[in-house]
Amino acid sequence: MSPLALCLIFSSCLFCVGLAGALARGNAILVLLGIELMLNAANVNFIAFWRYGPTHASSTGVMFVIFAIALAAAETAVGLALVIAVYRHQRNIRLQEATKLKG
Amino acid sequence: MTLLPLLIIMLLTLGSAAVAMMLRNLIHSAMLLIFSWAGIAAFFLWAGAEFVAFAQVLVYVGAVSMVVLFAVLLTRRSRADLEVSPPAWKRILLAVFPSVLVGSLLIGAVLGAFPPTTNSSPAPELTVKQIGESLMGPQTAALLAIGVLLTVALLGAIVIASPEKSEDKP
Asked: What is the pTM of this model?
């Protein structure tokens, strides 16, 4: 098996673990962590194609991953602030009970 | 065999991520996810992207993990709140079925697209100097946009998380 295919399988499995966690868990923090895992899987894909892709001597993949990490950090900060806001309103962070805005 | 380190990194990262998504204790989940992020940083090191690996360690293993642990500790009232009740079986099935479907589609596409060869091309040379010149040269607009976005996101996070003054005065 070529290294590129193994890296892509790695990122696919990581994405699926994150997706299953984000869909199955009812705790808001665990859902956020699942989304973080999916973002990390995308970064693994970028690095894999940068390393084994057809074009060499290019920094595009690394640049993209650096910006993606910065975006993920901002997303985590806002997401955990939302978790704390939800906790202040309903005294727990179970997503099944966060139905105040439901029409 | 050059793929052995990658296989070990894969197994450790995927195993700790999967166990973290199944555990009931939130603190244990966060700790295992820190290990998983460190494994991803090890993958970046293995692939030759040292700068990205250190950025991953700084941002995820250092900063995001601490923010997550603080959020876990701030959103509980008693020790029992750390134990999350497991989701219902129907919910687990409804979550695992689409992710297994997506995963099998992705892995099938990967295995179909790349014939089983073992050729390994040399690692592309990319020094930190080149990254810095690229950030200050062609990517300056993106760097400025990221800076503005981080500032706005942090201000917004403070505004969202701060208590409303009209409702609950200390």
From this structure: 0.88
The verdict on ipTM greater than 0.95 is no
CATH number at residue B72: 1.20.120.1200
Candidate from A18, A47, A73 with C-beta closest to B64 = A73
Same domain for B62 and B45: yes
Is A27 in contact with B83 (CB distance < 8 Å)? Answer: no
Whether residue B126 and residue A73 make contact (CB cut-off 8 A), yes or no, is: no
3-state helix, strand, coil in chain A (%, to 5): 80, 0, 20
What is the rounded distance in angstroms from the CA atom of residue B132 to the CA atom of residue B100? 40
Same domain (yes/no): B13, B68: yes
* B75 in the same domain as B138: no
- Per-residue pLDDT tens digits for A36-70: 999 999 999 999 988 887 766 578 889 999 999 99
